[in-house]
Amino acid sequence: MKYLSRIIILSLCLLSGTAIRAQVHAEQVLNIGRNVLAMDDYVLAIQYFNQAAAAKPYLWDPYYYRALAKLMLDDFHGAENDASDAIERNKFKYEAYRVRGFARMRLRLDSAAIEDFNKGLAYAPDDKYFLYYKGLAQASLGDLTHADSTFSHLLNIYPRFEDGYGSRAQAHLMAADTVAALKDISEALRINPNMLPARLMRADISLHRRQWAAAAADLDTVIKLSPADVSLYINRAYARYNADDWPGAMADYNYALDLEPQNYAAIYNRALLRYQIQDLSGARNDFSKVLEHDPDDFPARYNRGLINTDLGNHQAALADFRLIANKYPRFYPVYYAMSRVYQNMGNAKLAADYFFKANDLISRYTDDPAHYKLDRPAIQNGSSREQSDKSDPSVSESPEDVMEHFNELVTVSHDRQSTPLYGEKLRGRVQDIDMRVQPAQPYALSFEAPVDEIRQRYDSYAELTEINSSGWLDAPLFLTTGTNTPDDAYRIQSLFDFVHASYAAQQAHELRPVDFLARAVALTSLKNYEDALGDLNDALKINPGFVSALLQRAYVYPLAASALNHESGIHDMLSEASAGQARIKAMEDYDTALSIDPRLPYAWMGKGYLLYESSDYAGAAGCFSQALELAPDLGPAMFNRALCMLRLGRKREAVADLSRAGELGVVAAYNLLKNI
Q1: Smallest Cα–Cα separation from 637: which of 650, 624, 655?
Q2: Which regions of 245-314 does DSSP assign to beta strands (E)?
Q3: Cβ atoms of residues 234 and 263 within 8 Å
Q4: In what helix (H) or strand (E) does residue 609 lie, and over which residues does it extend?
Q5: Which of 248, 260, 451, 499 is most exposed, with the fewest beta carbons within 10 Å of its own?
Q6: Residue 92 backbone phi and psi in degrees, to 5
Q7: How far, in Å, are 173, 181, 186, 205, 503 from residue 176 at the CA level?
Q8: pTM exceeds 0.85 for this model
Q9: How many whole angstroms from its chain centre is CA 525?
Q10: Partner residues linked to 459 by β-bridges
C-alpha cells in the first residue's frame, strides 16, 4: 500500500498545471482519497482531500469527506468546521448535516446537534442514523420523554437495530426505569448475543443489585470478545470476590496487572484481597505502590498502617497514622489504630489517651451530628483509581459505616455503552495509539530521507537546494525534524565508511565547508556529537555565513551537552547549567542564521523549541507563529504551538492548532486531541 501510494503521488506530480489538467487532478485526487478513506487510512485520506480542496475550493465533496475522516480520528472541532464548509457550498447534501450533528454531539453541543439532525430528517425522514443520533442527543440533554419517542419511532422502522434498543435502555436507566431497560437489553441481545454495550449494561445492573453470578456471567462473555480490556477483569474480580470466589478474583487482578502493570485500581484491590487472606507482605507492597503514585491516597495509607501494625513495624505504622491524623484530625478510627500500636509497644498511657480521644469524637458526633462532623477521608477527585458510588462516603453516614469503605474493593467505569461511534468503522484510529506527548524536535540535516508516508514532502530552503543541485556531494542532504538515523546495519556501516573516507581525504587536501558539513551530518546520525561540533566549527571558521552549518550546530549543541553529562555522571545542578549554556549557544546560532535569512522558518522553529524546553511557553509560541507565517503548512510548528497553548491554559486555541496539525500529517495531534 505504501509503495502504491508513492506511485500514485508521483503520477499526480507529473500532471501539467493547465486548467484542464488541474480539473483532472482534483477529480483523481478526490477519487483516490475516497478509496483510501474506505480502506480506513484516515490520516492519508485527509492529505488527498487537502489537495482536492486546494484545486477546486468551491466543491463540497472534499470538505465533506475530510470532515468524515476527521470524525473517525476524534477531531470533532475539525470535523464540525469542515462539515460547515461543505454545507455552505451545498446545503442540499444532507449527509453533511449528519456529520456535523454527530461532531457537535461529541462536543456536547447537543441542542445544535439536534438542529442538524432535524435538518437532515427534513430531507430523509426515515434515515436510521439521523433518528438514532437525535435520540442520543435528546437523552444527553435529559429530555428523556422525547428521546424515548425518537427511539421508539426508530425501532418501529428498524425493529432489528440492536444499537437502538441499547441506547433506549440507557435512557430508561437515566429515568431510573430498570425494568424497561432490562427489557430493551434482552431484545438487543436476542438480536445480537455478542453486543458488548448491552452485556456491560446488564452486568452493571447485576452488580448494583448484588447479583454476583449474573454479573460475572455477562462479564465472562464480554472478556471472551474483548480479552485485552483491563477494566473488565477488575469488575469481574469484584463480582467473584462478592460471590466468595476469592481465588478467581485474585486471578483476575493478577491478569489485569499483567496487561497493565500500573493500573492502580487493580493494585489497590489486590492489596485488600491479599490483606484479607493474610498475605501481609504482599498487601503492604501493593499499598506502597499505590502510595508511590498518589501519596494522598489515605485509604491505602490507613490500610498499610494496619498491616505494619500486624507485622510489628510500629514506627512505620505510626508514621502513616500521623499523616492521616494531621490531614483529618476528626477521623476517629486512626486514633483507635494508634492506641493499638502504643498498646503493642507497651505504652499504656498513650494507648489510653488515643483510645479516649476516639471515644470523645464519637460521643460528640452522637450528641450533635450537625455541629461535630467527623472527617471521612476518601480517594481524592482526579485520583488514579475510580470508586463505585458506595465507596464515596456521604455526609449522612453513621460512624460505624466509615470503616467499611476503607476495606471495600472498587470497580472501574467503562464508556462502551455511553460513547456513540459514527457508523461502525474503528480501524485506522491513530488517536487510540498511546503516544508520548513531546514537542517536535528542531529541524536538522540528514542523509536519510524523512520518514513521512503521509505527506510525501521534503522541506528545504535556498542554500540547501543549491547544495543538492550543485553536485558538491555524492548524496543529497535532507531536512528532518530530529536526526533520522538509519535502522539497518548496512546503511549505518555506510555512514562509518563515509566518515573514515572523509578523514582520509582530509590528509590529502583541504576540505571545503560543505565537506565539513557533510561529515558533521554523518557524525550526528552516528551520535558522535563532539566530533560533529568540531567539523561544524571548522566549516563556520571558513564561512561564517554558512546557514546550513549554523542550523546543524544549533541542533547538535544541546545533544552534545546531554551526552557529555550522561557520560560523566554530572550531578543535576551542574548538568542543568551545562544544558542551559548549550541552549544559549544554540540560540545564538539560530539568531545568526536569521540575521542572514530572516525568512527561514526552520530557524524560528528551533528557537521556539529551545524556549519551550526552557519553559518560556509564550516566547516559544511566538517563534512557532513566526515559522507558520513563513510556512503555513509546517505541521511540526503547528503541533508545537498547540503544546504551548495547552501549557498557557489556552485550550480552545490548542484544539484549533492540533486539528490543523493533524490535517498537515502530524499523527500525534490526534492522540492528544482525544485526550484533551
Answers
A1: 624
A2: none
A3: yes
A4: helix 601-613
A5: 451
A6: -90, -5
A7: 5, 9, 17, 11, 80
A8: no
A9: 29
A10: 479
